[in-house]
Specification:
With 295 residues, this protein is an alpha/beta fold. It is built from ten helices and ten strands. The protein folds into two domains: 231 residues, Rossmann fold; 58 residues, no CATH class.
């Protein structure tokens, strides 16, 4: 390994100017909607890139810097990266409550197509964190990317959103001093077309009902590319059963475990560049020669 590679893999300089990286921020359109993006490009021309699919709501905000850090690392090693905000989220057009479940899948498709055309790429991979991993896994059946990387993916969307509503209960206790609507009440409100606010994000009923339907282990996923599933947990000793089952849902997947080095539920600790997660992902990409210089 060269001295430059060692330096990169230690992630010492990702937050400083790097002349080998070109960063571009702008908007692309999907069905007339303007979606914000950030591209991280190697200095030299390449024909492979990866699109990052961000987590849901506040989890995205808490982990945004990790995406930026890893995008810079990959670009420094020859892989182009495309990050974007879904419709109604971040710096993209629209309000959060306007976005449907289908919008998010269409946003990923549009992001991949725009990135490929803009940079004349012949190969694309997808990387998703948490519920972004769920969306990436669903989108891969349509897009057939060269590789798929899932960081701590949500296997059961129904359980995820059921747990997510807990934050509304906590807010009721703080604001009202008591629980006026139980979790079952909130679900009924959503199922009948109502809206519920969680951590400042307004969920509409149509989105909730459709999003919770997806369980990644209910069937064999129609995707034949390489898949890396990363379990991120405080004390990893055994692969969780749902991730073992998810592994078998793909044709060519493997599960690895890393220690949880950052948080998505809260922000008590700050780790913008988790070394174990980054190293194991880079190792996988190098193993299957997904970096430009190895193709």
């Amino acid at each position: 390994m060269s001295e430059k590679e060692k330096k990169l893999i230690e992630f010492k300089n990702i937050n400083y100017p790097d002349n080998s990286i070109i960063e571009k921020h702008d908007y692309f359109t999907r069905d007339g909607k303007h979606l914000f993006y950030a591209m991280f490009l190697p200095e030299q021309k390449q024909d492979i890139g990866v699109v990052f699919c961000s987590p849901f709501a506040e989890e995205k905000v808490r982990t945004l810097r990790i995406f930026v850090s890893f995008a810079r690392v990959l670009a420094s090693m020859g892989l182009s990266v495309f990050c974007f905000d879904y419709f109604g989220d971040g710096d993209s057009e629209g309000d959060f409550e306007e976005a449907s479940f289908g919008d998010r899948i269409e946003d990923i498709k549009a992001a991949v197509n725009f990135f490929k055309k803009e940079q004349a790429l012949s190969k694309i991979g997808l990387l998703g964190l948490r519920w972004g991993g769920t969306l990436a896994a669903l989108a891969c059946e349509i897009l057939a990317p060269k590789f798929l990387i899932l960081w701590e993916p949500i296997v059961s969307s129904e359980k995820y959103f059921y747990d997510y509503l807990r934050s509304n209960i906590a807010s009721q206790m703080v604001i009202e001093g008591k629980v006026k609507m139980t979790r079952n009440d909130l679900i009924k409100e959503l199922e009948t077309g109502g809206k519920v606010t969680v951590e400042g994000y307004v969920l509409n009923g149509d989105f909730y009902v459709k999003a919770r339907q997806y369980n990644l282990t209910e069937r064999k996923l129609n995707y034949r590319g390489k898949t890396l599933i990363v379990q991120i947990s405080p004390n990893p000793t055994n692969v969780r059963p749902e991730l073992k089952k998810l592994e078998s849902s793909f044709s060519d997947a493997e599960v690895v475990m890393v220690v949880k080095e950052f948080e998505w539920e809260k922000t008590e600790t700050w780790q913008p560049a988790p070394p174990q997660l980054f190293n194991i992902t880079i190792g996988y990409l190098k193993k299957y020669a997904f970096f430009r210089r190895d193709i």
